[in-house]
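INTERNAL AUDIT FORM
Audit reference: QA-55
Scope: verify that the stored structure record matches its stored sequence.
Auditor: D.O.
Record contents follow.
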Amino acid sequence: IAVISVTIVPLLPATSAFASVCATATYSELTDGQLTYSLGSDCTATITGSTLTLADRHTYYLAHPTLTFSSTVTVRGDTYTVTTIGVDSFRNIRAIEQISLPPSVTKIDNYAFYWDTIRTLSAADIPGVTTLGEGAFDWNDTLTSVTLPEGITAIPLAAFQNNPALISVTLPSTLTDIGEWAYSSSPITSLIIPSGVVSVGGNAFRSLPPNSVVTFLGDPPTSLGSGAFPGSVVLEFPSGVLPDCATIGYTTTSCPVTVRFNSGEGGSPVPDQVVTYGGTITQPANPTRPDSVFIG
């Protein structure tokens, strides 16, 4: 009698690596501005632009000023989720006034909406976005207000630079880093910096108008680039922890300022005085230099 040995091999579960493999390809829609996509093997899609010329895209979006598209595209039986607005994909169109992205889109890449005419940007317009690229909304000269969704942790280089009508900005509580030139040339009149922000890059808010109020909900950032804020703005720190003014180089309503006096050659030294920003010094004694008095 022969004895047969049998080994039972379990079937792979439906969630195996073989369950979500798609063909890589490029794809072009025949509607919605004839958008082009890069399709990945992970079943995600990136919008890369359009088959239309720039002039034809301008004409199309003049008639369709709100940018919308489906969260998925299906090609040869494979369904891809649109997750990214690609580099330069809507650059220089100068006709898009509003965007309404599906929640599936998590990234707006570098210069995606550079030199466009978007008027406002709310968290509801980009609900799933957690990553912004450099210059993503640079040079939208009609943009007046921006509210970013929760989940964004960094605003990169020049993301909202050169938006001369931008006066209202609301930052998410998840934010930790604001890059160089992020809002340069944007005349924001009032700004609240979330408590988690630890870094503000050079020239990030260099164009805030005089006497604009910037409120830090947390401690001062541990890294502050040169020219991040103009010297004419008011920085408030409700937490009571103040920055090192001499090191960081900006002033607040309660930041100590050292006043030094030049008594001229041959005169006796005049002691420094320390006052709060906007405070009044005490007239010092006249220096001992002959024929010299303190005149202010």
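Auditor finding: record pair retrieved intact. Residues 54-63 form the longest helix (10 residues).
Action required: none
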